[in-house]
Amino acid sequence: MTIPALSIHGLAKSFDKPVIAGLDMEIAAGQLYALLGPNGAGKTTTLRMVTGLTRPDAGTIRIFGIDALADPIATKAVTAWLPDEPMLYDKLTPSEYLAFVAGLWRMDPKHAADGAERLLHWLDLWDQRDTRCEGFSRGMKQKVALAGALIHDPQLLILDEPLTGLDANMARAVKDALRAQVDAGKTVIVTTHILEVAERMADRIGIIAGGKLLIEGSLAELRNHAGNEGGTLEDIFIRLTSEA
Fold this sequence. Notes:
single chain
């Protein structure tokens, strides 16, 4: 039996009120999964719990079979997290930033340097490798942050709104990079408010509202569930979330 990339059961989190309420979710390895929901649905909170940044009140999280709450170091070693506002050290160049991140992962310096060179070429950052990040556009910073997320070759890449604020060319570069990761056998989970992106890119889609998973499946399965064979993801999303 294949071990899921991510398995969540009974996940719960409250702040002033319940945000996540008994969430169950399972994501197979080797796919691009889009987690969708209206503002306040609990998407970011869920991902922050998966990545160990927020501790759940209840429930279990397993990443490739590893208990993320019992062994967070092991799960972090195979996971990368890219928030919607990635933090860079603006005084560093892309090359310096990647060396810094690789050092945090205690990577072999030669292996890290080879990986950094490959990523900088792949993300079209090579010509800017020795330029401080402080003058970069949002799209350029997003690509540097993505390179930093990939430097330790994670098996699970989690991104919160990775396309927000990017122009068409930068957005295409990021989307191509994510698809390449999936084609290489990695698992990618993204949140996005751009439903057309999820419709075109995602292998499977989950829609949450009120901290609970409303539906999960391929676009064809979502259409079948909604009884709307020719409907767009936007049609299905609006109908399901308005009824929740």
